Amino acid sequence: MGRFASGPKATYIPTDETPQTAQGRAIDRLSTLPWWLIILLLLGVFLVHQLSSNEPYVTAFNRVVNGIGTTLLVTGVGYTLAICFGLVAGLGRVSKNILIFNAATLYVQVIRGVPILVQMLYWSFVIVPLGATALNALGAWLAPVLGDASFLVKIQSRDIDFMWRVTFALAFAYGGFEAETFRAGIESIGKGQMEAARSLGMSYPQAMLYIILPQAIRRVLPPLGNDLISMLKDSSLVSALGVREMTQEARLLAAANFRYIETYSSLAFMYLSLTLILSLFVRGIENRWKQG
């Protein structure tokens, strides 16, 4: 294809661009746009408009916000404990001690084989009551000897709030997954580095603490960040035991006024906003870690 130049004598000037190629380029440009982000922004604008002008949406949003503190508390405490459990179990998974290795492996396999909600129920209604009974027995046994162990006898399972029960259960569950993450990170470091550290006179714990773990944590930081976001979403499971976090607040409101669209749209908007903010926070930490 080409075009004719204007003038006394028309000249044909060939061009490389045809209507078809121009259309193809336009389609290519459109295909490279972040449509997922555009759709999310449009939905966000719509929901923000509803939350500022629609009374049922405003009521639902305010009720959901009441549970945001509990959601963040469960997530923060649970994830901190999960990192501790996972690191200990991950070190056990690479240990050459048979007892430690098998104990860590048993923990990981049980956690990975039982649903998180079932683990929460088991911790809340089985392990906590059994633990309280065991502490009562220990207090009764120590009282004649020490005389100051009577507080153990007074411990009752009903005194332990369900929020702390399910938070610990969630942390214990995620600890099993973090254990495999730490194990993979430790095993990705060349064995020669451990041998070199030992040859310099370091003990095994020193070499692991100062040489292996810093490199392993740098490598497993992305999956650890993803697990933090996953725990924020899975914290909604604690609503099954009546903990008043965002999901439970939304369920109670919807059961009272039957405004399901407004209530659960507000709930979904809150979770999506929190996960997006947390994703940006995790990505910022990853970038700083890489630069450092």
**Radius of gyration, in angstroms, nearest whole number:** 29 Å
> Could you give the order of the helices and strands?
EEHHHHHHHHHHHH
CATH superfamily of the domain at 72-240: MetI-like
Q: In percent, how much strand structure appears in the residues?
A: under 5%
- Which strand order spans the largest sheet, edge to edge or round the barrel? 1-2
Q: State the CATH architecture of the domain at 72-240.
A: Orthogonal Bundle
- CATH topology title of the domain at 72-240: MetI-like fold
Return the average pLDDT rounded to an integer.
86
Outline the biggest β-sheet.
2 strands, antiparallel
What structural category do the secondary elements indicate?
mainly alpha
First and last CA, distance: 55 Å
Contiguous low-pLDDT stretches (5 residues minimum) are: none
Outline type? flat
CATH class of the domain at 72-240: Mainly Alpha
Give a brief rundown of this model:
This protein is mostly helical. It has a domain at 72-240: MetI-like (MetI-like fold). 79% of the residues lie in helices and 3% in strands.
Write up this protein.
This protein has helices at 19-31, 35-53, 55-65, 68-93, 98-113, 116-146, 150-153, 162-187, 191-199, 204-234, 246-257, 260-291; strands at 2-5, 11-14. With 292 residues, it is an all-alpha fold. The protein has a domain at 72-240: MetI-like (MetI-like fold, Orthogonal Bundle). The protein has a two-stranded antiparallel ribbon with strand order 1-2. Strand 1 and strand 2 (11-14) form a beta hairpin. The longest helix is centred in the last third of the chain and has 32 residues, at 260-291. The chain is flat, with a radius of gyration of 29 Å. The model has no long low-confidence stretch (mean pLDDT 86).
